[in-house]
Amino acid sequence: MPAAKKPRAAYDRLLLKLSGEALLGSNKTFGIDQSFLQYLAREIKDARSLGIEIAAVVGGGNIFRGVSDSAKGMDRVSADHMGMLATVINALALQDALENEGVFTRVLSAIEMREVAEPFIRRRAIRHMEKKRVVIFAAGIGNPYFSTDTAAALRAMEVKAEIILKATKVDGIYDSDPAKNPKAKKFDRLTYDQVLRKGLKVMDATAITLCMDNRLPIIVYDLKKKGSLRRIAQGERVGTLVKE
After folding, report:
1. Beta-bridge partner residues of 218
2. Which of 203, 183, 232, 235 is nearest to 19 (CA)?
3. What's the CA dihedral at 102, 166, 62, 109 to 10 degrees?
4. What is the pLDDT of residues 19-39, one digit of tens each?
C-alpha cells in the first residue's frame, strides 16, 4: 500500500492577527484565560506542522486599550503607549504557551526592551521565520494613533506574508452584528472597496487601505472553531475572504 500523501500548505508564510480580547476566552472580562491560550498555541502548532511559516500580532484590549473607557481623560499618546505595553504582556504569554507545546518562538518589540524581547529588525524577523520559529510582533509599530490592525498589515508586508488571517469571535464578516441581529447576512467574499464603502468592521480603514494598495488578502475566521487555522493553511474555504 502506498504511503499516504502528506498534507500540503497553500501558503509559505502567513500572519495571524489576534485581538487582545481573544485571550479572555469565554469567561474572563480581564486578563488572560490560560486554558484558551493553550488551545490557541495548539492550533498554531497544528498549522505550523504543515511546514508553513507563521508570524502573529496580538492586541492588548484584554488589559488596556488607548481608546477604551478607562483611557478617557488621559493624554492619547500616553494611553496608546500603555496599550502598546499591554500587547507586550500578551505576546510574552503567547510565547510561553507556544514553547510549552514545543514550538520555538521569538518576540520582537517595536519598543526597545531588550531584557524581555528582541527589537524589531525586519531582516532578523524574516530570518527567524526561515528557521521555522513563530515570530510574535509586539508593541504595534511603536507609534501612537495606529492600531494593532495597522501594525498587522504593515508587518505582514514587511516580512512578505502572503495573507493576513484575522481571528475573531464570529465565523466571517456580516452586514451587521450577528450577536444582535439573527438575520445578519454573512459574506463569503468581499473586495477592499466593498469593506470600506459598507463600513464593515473588519479592520480599521488604514489597515484595509494598506492591504488594498499592496494586494494583500485577508481572511476573517472563527478563532474558537477547532482546526480552522490548519484548514485555511491547507487552502480550504473558511470564513470570509477579502481581496481584489
Report:
1. 164, 242
2. 203
3. 60
4. 999 999 888 889 999 999 999
Distance CA 188, CA 238 (A): 9
Question: Mutual orientation of helices 148-158 and 122-130 as an angle, nearest 10°?
Answer: 70
Helix (H) or strand (E) holding 55: strand 53-58
From residue 135, alpha-carbon distances to 14, 190, 240 in Å are 11, 29, 25
88-114: per-residue pLDDT in tens? 999 999 999 999 999 999 999 999 999
Percentage of the chain beyond pLDDT 90 is 86
pTM, two decimal places: 0.94
Answer whether 232's CB lies under 8 Å from 182's CB. no
How far, CA to CA in Å, does 138 sit from each of 29, 57, 110? 22, 7, 6
Considering only the C-alpha atoms of the chain, give the largest distance between any 2 of them, rounded to a whole number of Å.
70
Domains contained in the chain, CATH given = 13-242 (3.40.1160.10)
Backbone CA torsion sign across 60, 64, 68, 72: negative
